[in-house]
Amino acid sequence: MLYGSPIRGRILAATAAAIILVLSGSGGASLDVPSFQDWEQEVARCQGLLKTDPGNARYLNTLGFAYYRLRRLPEAIVAYRQAIARDDRYSVAYNNLGVVYLETAAYGKGEEAFRHALRCDPGNAKAAYNLAVSLYRQQRYHEAYRAYLLAKSIDNSYVKVRLQSTKLKEEVNRLSSTSPDDKLTRRVEQEIASP
Q: What is the pLDDT of residue 16?
C-alpha cells in the first residue's frame, strides 16, 4: 500500500483533485487529475490560443495554472500578472497569483493579491479563505480569524471542505499551546469543531 491504507490513498487523491478545482476557479465536474504531459499539452494549447488572441485574460490565467501545476512558478506568476494586466477585475487570476505567492512563502504579496481578488469580487470565498491562510502564516492571528469568518460567511460549505482537507486543526492545537491569546484560540477551535 503506497499511502499506508486504501482510505488514506483515496483521501490524498481527493484532496489533490480538490486543490486543482480550487486553484482553477472552476466548479469542476471532473475529478480526474491530469498528468505532467497533459499540463505540458495545456501550455502548448494556451500558447497557440494566445497567438490568435494575445489579450485574452482567460487564456493567460489558464496558462498560469498549467505552469503552476508543472511547478514552473516564475512563469505562472508572469502569466497571472499578464492576465491581470489585461483584465484588472479578474478575481480568479488575482487569487491564483496569491496561491503561487503562498507556495513561495511570499505571504505579503499573497495577502495583497487576495485582497485585490476580494475587491474585484467580494463574494470570492476562495480568496477570503486564502487571505486567512496568508495572514495566519504571517502570525497575524486576529486578522486571519476575521478573514476566516468572512470566508465562512460567504460560503460555509466551501470552508468546511477546506478545513477537512488541511492540517489547520493540528496548527490550531499547536497555536493553542503557544498563543498569548487563549480566548482567540478557543474561538477558532470552536469554529472548527462546529458542524
A: 39
